[in-house]
């Protein structure tokens, strides 16, 4: 071990005990054989309950797909009818796509607390597959760059007419490959554990995907490297896809909307939502899969602090964009404020700000909230609702701009509010259900917590007495 | 004929002792290795830590993708010379998005290929192995000539192996 970190805060006596109860319920170490058998058993845990949920989610997904086909048949060429689908895709990509960054950042920074949760966070990236499928009708409905000889403002200065369509799809495929590579990089040792200790098709599946993994020095060494590399590549692809989606599927559809900060704002709120999804997933895993032994307050507390930081950061990014338009006062600046803030989605904007920023800020600011499982999960729920409303405000507004006015210098007449119809609601619910179903199905194959990561957590961690309190002693290998 | 011998240990310190014993018995570094179900800090068992070349794969992939994108964007702009905003025909900023995207795509694909190659996967002949390694036991494995197998077994047993397996 190159260094050791003493991790605690308590000082003495009564204060130390109170502190211990409030925060430092130090995790008990779990033996490796128990970890392996219990985590492999989670793929069968609560089988009836999970199966029932999977049937319900599957039915909702199917209804969503059928309704989408009906919508394609009857409302194909109406671009404004696809605003809520665009908002949902942007939301799913933001929330689930941002979650793996929790695992990536924590792993690259060698944080011990992140080890038990890295698997779930990485699994969330599977939703990029759902997003890509739902993007197909959006890509087909996205206006061409050049309509009636006029070229709309976009990032494709000299590109062919279908540049946004093609490159958005290529970007999503790159993200899917990165996501699958990241999940597989994390999972090979666990496939070996399944090969060694599962039965039936899971044993055969594990054996096939473990590809002869036996845990040699070379295999572990290259695994560390590939997690680092795939994580880095995922991050770079993730921010790029945010750039593409936010510019091609929102900003370039509203004439006069020119905001250099918007792609970053999009990515920051996505990381905020990704943290929230991770918290809710872990909360559900504790509650319904009985993983209390492996998921501790430390994980919730750490992510709670990050969520709080990103909540404040959202305010910073929003104001940084807003102040330019507020003081710019040109026609296009005024249009941005009138259409996207004060316009047809004013109340959606107010609710979005309330849930994405103001309420989580004054909720997560309290140490007591962040040091509780339920408190952090409630904060996460508020943030997800806020991010969803924010995406509705931006994407529905963008997709309701008529195609014949998309080339104007800036929008002068604002389309009225578009409310979701029954089909929109079924599509949105179906897309969300499909995303949850995919992750749930993945946890029936792979343990929701990575076996080797949990074992390494236990390997490098010792609860020890330090003066009059107890602290975690954590080894940090180079 | 060569033979693989595996010693299984409950205690990591005994596994480290076994590695020392094999080294002292004259076996060359690289002929023996430690098998674990969880990544111990590198060098914890005194094992030989080999160099890897994994970083070459994304770098090589990115260069290939960048070159292809450069060719695609430059060729398109030269084939259809449209002056946009008074900028040069070959404008780097118009090409940047595609250069980045294709570099990333190519880097990601080549990294996935690199993972498989550098991890020595698929490992079609994993040799001697024990399922309990993924439950926390530590294995020390050596591949040696038949006539030196007994020396290896003595070294592994001397460090307190709970079980010896051969293949």
Based on secondary structure, the structural category of chain A is mainly alpha
Tally of domains of chain A: 1
Overall pLDDT score of chain B: 86
CATH class of the largest domain in chain B: Alpha Beta
List SSEs of chain B in N-to-C order. EHEHHEHE
- The domain count of chain B comes to 2
Helix content of chain A: 55-70%
Give unreliable regions of chain A as ranges.
1-21
* Sheet having the most strands of chain B: 4 strands, antiparallel
Number of helical stretches of at least 4 residues of chain A: 18
Strand content of chain A: under 5%
What is the average per-residue confidence, as pLDDT of chain A, rounded to a whole number? 88
Note poorly predicted spans of chain B: none
Q: What oligomeric state best describes the polypeptide chains here? A: heterodimer
Q: Please count the beta strands of chain A (DSSP E, at least 2 residues each).
A: 5
Portion in strands of chain B: 5-15%
Record the SSE blueprint:
The complex is a heterodimer of chains A (478) and B (167).
Chain A (H helix, E strand, L loop, with lengths): L2 E5 L5 H10 L9 H10 L5 H29 L7 H16 L1 H9 L9 H6 L3 H15 L4 E2 L2 E2 L11 H35 L2 H11 L6 H32 L13 H28 L7 H32 L2 H11 L4 H19 L2 H4 L2 H27 L22 H22 L7 H9 L1 E6 L2 E8 L2
Antiparallel strand pairs in A: 1-5, 2-3, 4-5
Chain B lengths: L1 E8 L2 H13 L7 E4 L20 H24 L12 H27 L19 E8 L3 H10 L4 E4 L1
Antiparallel strand pairs in B: 1-3, 1-4, 2-3
């Amino acid at each position: 071990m190159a260094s050791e970190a003493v991790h605690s805060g308590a000082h003495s006596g009564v204060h130390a005990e109170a502190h211990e109860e409030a925060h430092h319920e130090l995790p008990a170490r779990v033996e490796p054989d128990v970890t392996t058998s219990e985590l492999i058993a989670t793929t069968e845990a609560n089988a009836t309950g999970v199966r029932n949920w999977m049937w319900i989610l599957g039915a909702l997904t199917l209804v969503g797909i059928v309704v989408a086909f009906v919508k394609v048949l009857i409302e194909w060429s109406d671009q404004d009818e696809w605003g809520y689908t665009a908002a949902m895709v942007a939301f799913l990509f933001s929330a689930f796509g941002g979650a793996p960054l929790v695992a990536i950042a924590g792993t690259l920074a060698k944080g011990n607390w992140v080890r038990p949760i890295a698997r779930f966070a990485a699994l969330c990236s599977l939703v990029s597959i759902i997003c890509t499928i739902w993007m197909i009708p959006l890509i087909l409905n996205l206006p061409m760059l050049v309509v009636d000889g006029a070229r709309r403002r976009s990032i494709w200065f000299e590109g062919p007419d279908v540049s946004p369509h093609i490159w958005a799809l290529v970007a999503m495929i790159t993200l899917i490959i990165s996501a699958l590579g990241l999940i597989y990089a994390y999972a090979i040792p666990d496939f070996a554990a399944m090969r060694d200790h599962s039965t039936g098709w899971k044993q055969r599946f594990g054996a096939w995907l473990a590809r002869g993994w036996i845990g040699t020095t070379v295999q572990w060494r290259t695994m560390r490297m590939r997690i680092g590399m795939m994580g880095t590549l995922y991050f770079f692809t993730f921010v790029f896809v945010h750039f593409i989606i936010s510019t091609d599927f929102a900003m370039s559809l509203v004439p006069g909307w020119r905001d250099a900060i918007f792609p970053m704002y999009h990515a920051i709120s996505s990381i905020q939502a990704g943290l929230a999804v991770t918290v809710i997933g872990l909360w559900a895993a504790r509650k319904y899969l009985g993983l209390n032994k492996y998921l501790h307050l430390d994980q919730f507390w750490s992510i709670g602090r990050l969520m709080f930081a990103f909540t404040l950061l959202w305010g910073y990014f929003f104001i940084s964009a807003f102040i330019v338009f507020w003081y710019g006062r040109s026609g296009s600046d005024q249009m941005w404020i009138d259409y996207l803030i004060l316009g047809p989605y004013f109340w959606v904007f107010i609710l979005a700000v309330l849930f994405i920023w103001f309420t989580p800020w004054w909720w997560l600011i309290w140490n007591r909230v962040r040091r509780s499982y339920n408190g952090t999960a409630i904060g996460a729920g508020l943030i997800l609702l806020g991010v969803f409303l924010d995406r509705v405000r931006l994407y529905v507004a963008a997709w309701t701009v008529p195609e014949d006015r998309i080339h104007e210098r800036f929008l002068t007449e604002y389309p009225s509010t578009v409310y979701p119809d029954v089909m929109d609601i079924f599509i949105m619910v179906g897309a969300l259900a499909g995303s949850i179903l995919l992750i749930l199905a993945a946890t029936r194959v792979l343990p929701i917590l990575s076996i080797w990561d949990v074992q390494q957590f236990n390997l490098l961690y010792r609860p020890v007495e330090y003066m009059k309190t107890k602290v975690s002693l954590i080894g940090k290998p180079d | 004929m060569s033979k693989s011998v595996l010693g299984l240990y409950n205690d990591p310190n005994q596994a480290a002792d076994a590695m020392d014993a094999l080294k002292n018995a004259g076996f060359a570094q690289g002929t023996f290795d430690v098998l674990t179900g969880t990544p111990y800090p590198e060098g914890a068992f005194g094992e030989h830590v080999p160099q890897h070349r994994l970083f070459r794969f994304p770098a090589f992939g990115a260069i290939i993708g960048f070159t292809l994108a450069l060719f695609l964007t430059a060729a398109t702009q030269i084939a259809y010379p449209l002056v946009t905003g008074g900028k040069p025909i070959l404008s780097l900023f118009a090409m940047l998005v595609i250069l980045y995207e294709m570099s990333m795509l190519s880097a990601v694909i080549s990294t996935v290929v690199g993972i498989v190659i550098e991890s020595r996967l698929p490992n079609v002949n994993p040799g001697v192995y024990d399922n309990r390694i993924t439950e926390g036991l530590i294995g020390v494995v050596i591949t040696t000539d038949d006539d030196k197998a007994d020396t290896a077994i003595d070294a592994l047993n001397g460090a307190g192996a709970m079980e010896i397996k051969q293949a």
